[in-house]
């Protein structure tokens, strides 16, 4: 069975309680389905994901475009951050 890895940063890490985890891969995991999978596993992520970006294999994904997660991909959940 194939998997993909999700990395959580900043408030996504706090909401999920994890730095990373693996998910079972299946055909057709795009932005909407990925968001659904993450919220099913970690309901506290729902508000964080509304303002977060996804990066797949260190490349930012446009949430408005069609893209899918592939086996062994590394997906980062990157919430907005502020510096000081």
Query: What structural class do you assign from the helix and strand content?
Result: alpha+beta
The tally of beta strands, per DSSP, is: 5
Mean pLDDT: 93
Strand order of the largest sheet: 2-1-5-3-4
How many whole angstroms does the radius of gyration measure?
12 Å
Report strand %.
Answer: 25-35%
Number of helices: 3
Helix-strand pattern? EHEHHEEE
The coarse overall form would be: globular
Roughly how much helix do the residues carry, as a percent range? 25-40%
Question: For the report, how would you describe the main beta sheet?
Answer: 5 strands, mixed
Q: Which blocks of ≥5 consecutive residues have pLDDT under 50?
A: none
Span between termini: 44 Å
Quick recap of the structure?
Helices cover 26% and strands 27% of the residues. It is of the alpha+beta class and 84 residues long.
Describe this structure in words.
The protein is α+β, with helices and mostly antiparallel strands. Helix content is 26%, strand content 27%. It has 3 helices and 5 strands, in the order E-H-E-H-H-E-E-E. The protein has helices spanning 10-16, 31-41, 46-49, and strands at residues 3-8, 20-24, 53-56, 59-61, 74-78. Strands 2-1-5-3-4 form a 5-stranded mixed sheet. The longest helix is centred in the middle third of the chain and has 11 residues, at 31-41.
């Amino acid at each position: 069975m194939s998997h993909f890895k999700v990395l959580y940063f900043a408030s996504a890490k706090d909401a999920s309680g994890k730095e990373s985890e693996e998910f079972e891969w299946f055909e057709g995991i795009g932005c909407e389905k990925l968001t659904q999978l993450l919220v099913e596993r970690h309901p506290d992520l729902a508000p964080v994901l509304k303002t977060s970006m996804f990066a797949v294999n260190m490349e930012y994904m446009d949430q408005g475009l069609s893209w899918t997660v592939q086996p062994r991909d590394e997906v980062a959940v990157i919430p907005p951050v502020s510096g000081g």
